[in-house]
């Protein structure tokens, strides 16, 4: 039987002395995508930061493609196939769009031209500096920059935060193509369940750094009661947006 | 136009490394000065060496974001190495220059691990500390360095066995200019390569750079070593062309001066060091002739005004004026011009 793409076993991590995520265990198969839901401050971002290696490890293991990467440096995790799109986007402001991409590109199907096809707007702005882009363009560039690393797993931290509705639609359509059509595995952190459940295969809900609910996205859409319980969102709204 | 990352990077390299007309003009003037300004070769030699030194600091400050208050450590080390080598081994300038450059690079490599241990203020203190330690070693090892009296008796042979150093500084200027130009070409190639781009990502956000696969520490070590080698080459040129080395080459003010030059000229585009060195040295020369006692006051005042007005704003005014003269549309202010 093939190894899962990502396996977290009793993972605990935090910052300094603070333990933010506690005994988290989950498995993600290759080609599958996972939504990480939860209220503010429940450890969603810390979970992604821990997978990329930017937190203090306090216990448990992280296995990627069967290999224990718990002690591996961030840059080696990235080169090993984990792409990361952080919440703040962190575009390199003094580099042009194209330089942001060429500075990190690794061999594979996702080359600069492929990401330009995915986000034609970036091609139009290829000569612009990172800080001359709109919020939506910066987010597209952040996703594109993760893609040119040709990862097997992409981590997206609140990709729709602060974007205009029309841009969110564009971005979600791109994410759907990346995960569904291209078969790239993804973990997407999102506060607003209704936006992301239509894109992912499965979902977990975090509360106080621990998983309190785990199911397929489809079942959460069909029965949104856990969303109401843990997030306080109405099920009808979540289901309606996800179906649309 | 699809391609592998290497092909894309090569294409990008070709596009970004294309020479601009102003660059041609700058180097034409620099080489033209050999014939056009024969009576100023001594100061020109001093300027070009200082510019090379400033460019070496720009490599770490402008591209990798490493602030240093002790960059003169490598300049001084290169100067002493070249001087001592000429006295004790052989007076051939090129051999001395190459070995001093390599030795300074090696010193940079060793001390780079200290620089990795902190950011900003910690780095300033560490680099300053390294320069102070080396300065004191040079001061105490009188038998080797001449201590406070300076290293005397440096006798240089002719460059390439053909060109003797002369009193008017012609050979010195040509020698320093050619070496600086070659090192500039190499630096120019490096900063537009994917390696150079990765340095800029580190300067912008080291954590993010690491998380997208850039080995931050290794890149910082590499560029620090390279910058130390460049600074050492500048020091060696100074020792060889002036045939004297004093503790002044490693002093704090030399590190501070070169920082000031980058403040004047700007960082992150290689020419900042040249512009800063020219402005600084010419101002120093003119003002110290005019008022030998108070020249530092005026330099300081000019620096304060420059910082208050902002170089970007002045550059923009010049660009607007230039556009008006040519009847072209006025350029919009730029927030980023490939550097700070």
Describe this structure as you would to a colleague:
The complex is a heterodimer of chains A (244) and B (340). Chain A is globular. Chain A is built from eleven helices and ten strands. In chain A, the strands form two sheets. In chain A, strands 6-7-8-3-9-10 form a six-stranded mixed beta sheet, with helices on both faces. Mean pLDDT of chain A is 88; it is low at 238-244. In chain A, a hairpin with a 2-residue loop joins β4 and β5 (67-68). The longest helix of chain A is centred in the C-terminal third of the chain and has 17 residues, at 165-181. Chain A is of the alpha/beta class and 244 residues long. Chain B is mainly alpha-helical and 340 residues long. Chain B has a single domain (5-294), classed as ABC transporter involved in vitamin B12 uptake, BtuC. Chain B has 15 helices and no strands. Chain B has helices at 5-16, 21-36, 41-61, 72-88, 93-115, 121-140, 142-145, 170-192, 194-204, 206-211, 216-242, 252-265, 271-290, 295-309, 311-325. In chain B, α4 packs across α11 (216-242). Chain B is globular and about 60 Å long. The relative contact order of chain B is 0.17. The model of chain B is unreliable at 333-340 (pLDDT under 50). Chains A and B meet through α2, α3 and α4 of A and α1, α9 and α10 of B.
Features:
heterodimer, A: 244 residues, alpha/beta, 6-stranded mixed β-sheet, 4-stranded antiparallel β-sheet, 11 helices, 26% strand, globular, disordered C terminus, B: 340 residues, mainly alpha, ABC transporter involved in vitamin B12 uptake, BtuC, 15 helices
How can the largest sheet of chain A be summarized?
6 strands, mixed
Described by the principal axes of the CA atoms, the overall outline of chain A is: globular
Mean pLDDT of chain B: 88
Distance linking N and C termini of chain A: 36 Å
Specify the number of helices of chain A.
Answer: 11
Structural class of chain B: mainly alpha
Q: From N to C, what is the helix and strand string of chain B?
A: HHHHHHHHHHHHHHH
Radius of gyration of CA atoms of chain B, rounded to a whole number: 20 Å
Helix content of chain B: over 70%
- Stretches with pLDDT under 50, minimum 5 residues of chain A: 238-244
Indicate how many domains the architecture of chain B comprises.
Answer: 1
What number is the mean pLDDT of chain A? 88
Strand content of chain B: under 5%
Give the second-level CATH assignment, the architecture of chain B.
Orthogonal Bundle
Mass-distribution shape of chain B: globular
The quaternary state of the protein chains shown equals heterodimer
Widest sheet: strand ordering of chain A? 6-7-8-3-9-10
State the order of secondary-structure elements of chain A, H for helix, E for strand: EEEHEEHEHHHHEHEHEEHHH
End-to-end gap of chain B: 32 Å
């Amino acid at each position: 039987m093939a190894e899962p793409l990502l396996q977290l076993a009793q993972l605990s991590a935090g910052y300094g002395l603070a333990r933010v995520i506690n005994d988290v265990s989950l498995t993600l198969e290759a080609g599958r995508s996972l939504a990480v839901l939860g209220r503010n401050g429940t450890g969603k971002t810390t979970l992604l930061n821990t997978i990329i290696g930017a937190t203090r490890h306090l216990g448990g293991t992280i296995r990627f493609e069967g290999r224990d990467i718990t002690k591996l440096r961030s840059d080696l995790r990235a080169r090993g196939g984990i792409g990361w799109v952080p919440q703040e986007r962190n575009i390199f402001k003094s580099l042009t769009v194209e330089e942001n991409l060429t500075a990190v590109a690794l061999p594979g199907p996702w080359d600069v031209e492929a990401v330009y096809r995915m986000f034609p707007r970036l091609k139009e702005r290829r000569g612009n500096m990172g800080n001359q882009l709109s919020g939506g363009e910066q987010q597209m560039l952040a996703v594109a920059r993760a893609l040119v690393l040709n990862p097997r797993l992409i981590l997206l931290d609140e990709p729709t935060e602060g974007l205009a509705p029309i841009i969110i639609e564009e971005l979600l359509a791109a994410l759907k193509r990346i995960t569904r059509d291209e078969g790239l595995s993804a973990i997407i952190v999102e506060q607003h369940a209704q936006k992301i459940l239509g894109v992912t295969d499965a979902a977990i809900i975090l509360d106080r750094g621990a998983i309190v609910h785990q199911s397929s996205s489809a079942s959460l859409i069909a029965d949104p009661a856990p969303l109401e319980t843990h997030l306080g969102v109405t099920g009808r709204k979540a289901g309606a947006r996800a179906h649309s | 136009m699809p391609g592998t990352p290497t092909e894309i990077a090569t294409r990008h390299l070709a596009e970004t490394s294309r020479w601009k007309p102003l660059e041609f003009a700058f180097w034409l003037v620099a080489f033209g000065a050999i014939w056009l300004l024969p009576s100023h070769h001594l100061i020109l030699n001093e300027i070009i060496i200082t510019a090379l030194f400033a460019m070496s600091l720009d490599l770490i400050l402008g591209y990798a974001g490493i602030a240093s208050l002790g960059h003169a450590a490598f300049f001084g080390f290169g100067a002493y190495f070249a001087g001592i080598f000429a006295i004790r081994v052989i007076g051939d300038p090129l051999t001395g220059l190459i070995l001093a450059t390599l030795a300074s690079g090696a010193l940079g490599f060793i001390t780079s691990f200290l620089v990795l241990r902190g950011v900003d203020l910690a780095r300033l203190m560490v680099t300053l500390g390294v320069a102070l330690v080396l300065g004191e070693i040079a001061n105490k090892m009188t038998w080797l360095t001449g201590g406070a009296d300076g290293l005397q008796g440096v006798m240089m042979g002719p460059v390439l066995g053909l060109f003797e150093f002369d009193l008017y500084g012609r050979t010195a200027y040509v020698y320093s200019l050619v070496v600086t130009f070659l090192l500039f070409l190499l630096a120019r190639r490096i900063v537009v390569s994917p390696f150079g781009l990765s340095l800029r990502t580190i300067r912008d956000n080291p954590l993010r750079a690491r998380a997208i696969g850039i080995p931050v520490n290794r890149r910082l070590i590499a560029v620090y070593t390279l910058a130390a080698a460049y600074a050492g080459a500048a020091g060696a040129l100074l020792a060889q062309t002036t045939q004297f080395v004093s503790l002044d080459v490693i002093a704090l003010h030399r590190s501070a001066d070169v920082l000031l030059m980058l403040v004047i000229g700007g960082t992150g585009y290689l020419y900042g060091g040249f512009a800063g060195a020219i402005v600084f040295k010419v101002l120093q020369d003119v003002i110290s002739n005019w008022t030998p006692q108070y020249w530092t006051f005026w330099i300081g005042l000019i620096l304060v005004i420059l910082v208050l007005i902002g170089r970007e704003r002045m550059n923009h005014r010049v660009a607007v004026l230039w556009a008006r003269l040519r009847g072209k549309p006025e350029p919009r202010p730029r927030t980023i011009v490939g550097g700070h």
